[in-house]
Amino acid sequence: MKRNIRIATREDVPFILQIYNEAIATTTATFEIEERTVEGQLEWFSQFNENYPLFVMEVDNVIAGYSCIASFNKKAAYKRTVENSLYVNPNYQGQGVGRELLEHTIISTRELGYHTIIAIITEGNESSIHLHEKLGFTYAGTLCEVGHKFGDWQGISYYQLVL
Questions:
Q1: Where are the alpha helices (DSSP H) in 46-125?
Q2: DSSP one-letter code for 80
Q3: 3-state secondary structure of 49
Q4: Residue 108: which of 53, 45, 48 has the closest Cα?
Q5: 59, 67, 115, 146: which has the highest count of C-beta atoms within 10 A?
Q6: How far is C-alpha 58 from the chain's CA centre?
Q7: What is the CATH number of the domain that holds 17?
Q8: Of 154, 161, 115, 123, residue with least CA distance to 140
Q9: Domain that holds residue 83
Q10: Is the separation of the CB atoms in 59 and 94 below 8 Å?
Q11: How many structural domains are present in the chain?
């Protein structure tokens, strides 16, 4: 299998959208309820740049997952803290795609001069918790019952990695 991580392009948006909409429809990894449109995903895509990159991983020329960093908080004192997001196509889960993407994102975030990465993970998403802990993230706290999806209240846990 040929694997390649690169900066996402506008042409990747439909493939990223497919992965994200699958997560919306079938998981609590995102608290969005309604699937996004191409237009909505293009608007989301416009926030990424050289300071806030969006990466995709191709496996045999198929987008298997994506990872990005975004501003954690708009207040000035948070400018060197970012939030990461990571989504993997279900057909590629358990094959190291998430780990490679997160490792790449951590290295890139460090090179960009950021100090801390925050991951906000839904309680019960054990695979994401395990991956982040394996790569050095530490538990920082939980907010209980803050999102309601699939008929249940969901909590979120904060994990952080000080670079």
A1: 97-111
A2: T
A3: coil
A4: 53
A5: 67
A6: 16
A7: 3.40.630.30
A8: 161
A9: 3-162
A10: no
A11: 1
d(CA 98, CA 67): 8
For residue 159, list its beta bridge partners. Answer: 119, 139
Stretches in the chain below the pLDDT threshold 70: none
Residue 81 contacts residue 119 (beta carbons within 8 Å): no
Place of tokens 């020329």: 61
Pairing of strands 54-59, 3-7: antiparallel
d(CA 82, CA 66): 16
Question: If DSSP codes are grouped into helix, strand and coil, which group holds residue 95?
Answer: coil
Q: What is the pLDDT of residues 80-93, one digit of tens each?
A: 999 999 999 999 99
- What is the C-alpha separation between 114 and 163, in angstroms, rounded? 7
Give φ, ψ of 142 to 5 degrees.
Answer: -130, 140
Which stretches of the chain are assigned E, i.e. beta strand? 3-7, 54-59, 62-71, 81-88, 116-122, 138-149, 152-162
**Residue 1: what pLDDT?**
84
